[in-house]
Batch of 2 targets.
Target 1
Amino acid sequence: MKSHSDKVSRKRGNRFPIYTLRLPTVRVYIIHATELIPAVQRQWRTVSFTPIMANAGRAVLGVSQTGTDILRKDLTSDSNPVVGLLPILSRVMAPGPSLDCMVRRAAEIMTTSMDRLKRGDGAPVTIKLYEWTRHEILMATTEAVFGPKNPYQEPAVESAWRTLEPSYLSLALSPLKPLTSPRALQAREFLASSFISYLENNGPATASAFIREAHAHNVSHGFTTDDLARFEIGHSHAVIGSTAPTAWWLLWHVYSDPVVLGEVRAELEELAADSLDPLGEKTRSLDLSLLTSHASILQSALKETLRVHTISPAVRFCLEDHLLEGKYLLRKGALVIVPQPLHHSSTFAWGEKGHNHVAFRAFGGGHTLCPGRHFSAAEIVAFVAMMVLRFDVAPKKAGKWVAPTCEKTPMVASLQIPDEDVEVEVRARENGRGQWQFVSPGAGKE
Ligand code: HEM
């Protein structure tokens, strides 16, 4: 399931700790040695993610020239809006009441979507597993993030997002966007107008702490409503882009391997509690907060899924010359790339001596370590736990799970995307016919 470029980069990189690709317009340094990653991360102000984000604002999201000037001001300073935002997000998305609140909302949505898979007569329901997962996770995630005025409640907004998402890179690179990407541009403008309505309707006031604080921070930097709406499209990319494919791969790995399925189920059954409701009906309940500390097999499966399927390149821009580790000259104006597949498959880092935490790049690292990692891990593990406890899932075609190819994965994707969907039959388990109750973190304290 590795792409051609993965294989080439691993072959070439094997000989050097870092190597240079001289492209016609830019010099690119590929960080091959895992030991060099902390050195790159320490230089986060000058080997920086900020100019990449500032440029994406203009090229991909259509931020105004005035807004772009604000984004590009003082690129190395905490007064820059991009630099200043990440610590705020890391604080509000850390374990605590606001995170619990997001997980709780996501769990409510997921419970309702799974209820729709259960038929009273016990007959199976047929779904396309990727399509279904992508939609349900998008709804759960955006409801949790954007709150009750979530624009994604409108199917046309989800559909515009699906048109825009795979075209992120072509929008970023093309100087002739109306000619090369007319549909993506139209979708982006539709999303921008939906988010303008969201902002004018005071959407952030009832949203997660993530959106509330990010919005307040950006307002304090003087951006217009039109630019603020475009940042919400950027937030959509950060929050939806990876969660749905991760949830799908985790479902795929758990259900396609009877040993893993058996072990995960046994671990979860152990955590479930039985009770009788006032009418004497049996109810089974699972406290979702236990999944973080007591579901080590499922947690390991998530981590391994991320290790094997994430493909993000983590691109940085050199704002100044820098001599990395006193040895390797990084020239101003060059790009630095820390490719996940390279580090996630390094035998040096993942060999027999046990794994190296620096080599796990699925959530990035250093200053730009993903602030959404606690939320997405809690949401995805809850989603898979609910499915595994309530349903059996089997492919319709020949009853066999066949590993999908991923050759058509868009270049900007953070995870491999299956080329073909898999049609499956979902059947409520014998013991799933009783009531399941999933208790969310922090429930009762709201
Ligand atoms: C499985 C799910 C996710 C994965 C694998 C993931 C991965 C990443 C990675 C690798 C980065 C660093 C990018 C870089 O340094 O180049 C990042 C940044 C970030 N992530 Fe996540 N993420 C996930 C889910 C989320 C969620 C659910 C949220 C918010 C609710 C979120 C919010 C962010 C933000 C705000 C950043 C900072 C930069 C940006 O806007 O892209 N992420 N994420």
Target 2
Amino acid sequence: MVQSASEPGSPRGDRSSLSPTHRRDQASPVTGISAAGVPVPQVSVRRSSRRKRTVTAYRDKDTIVVLVPQRMSRRDEVAVVDDMVQKVLAREARVAAPKGDRDLAQRAAELARQYLAPAVGQTPEPYGVVWVTNQQRRWGSCTPSTRMIRLSDRLKPMPSWVVDYVLLHELAHLVEPSHSAAFWRLVSRYPHAEKAKGFLEGFQLGVGQPPTDADDVD
Ligand SMILES: [Zn+2]
């Protein structure tokens, strides 16, 4: 018996013979802007002929890979891909912040590789990344001459995406020491940058301190 390729109820079902079946998975790079107006990571949509209904997504370095059924319409694909990307980002945001210096350095290396390396052409490597207890006014600091990065331990109870933002901010200073437009372009590669900036500013206002991120470069 020959199985019909047409989908019941699909207006394009009778034209599906025009498209080849049993194609190998295809990767189509897509970049875009999330609903919150921040850049999202590179997204690769792969159509799978083995996949009937289910859609899955996972992170592969700086790319979010979304697997969709071969016959899904383009319109459905756009909606479902955006949804899946947000889910992956939300899942990543729930991961706990690094507790010790070793975890912190490891997280810094991941962030540098994921968000900065593609833009800079190499992975910025700090000499060291440590938690410190003596930074009561600054969230983080970077000393470009020694390539040391220090994060205030006041960040420890905060969500991991906030800690990631401060880490990435200080890592970007290894590339761009000043708060130039090029610096903020680098930082904005991190999808939660604007949200995290707002979070930290709100926190500082709440404890009666003026928002500061202007003097974190030594
Ligand atoms: Zn800064």
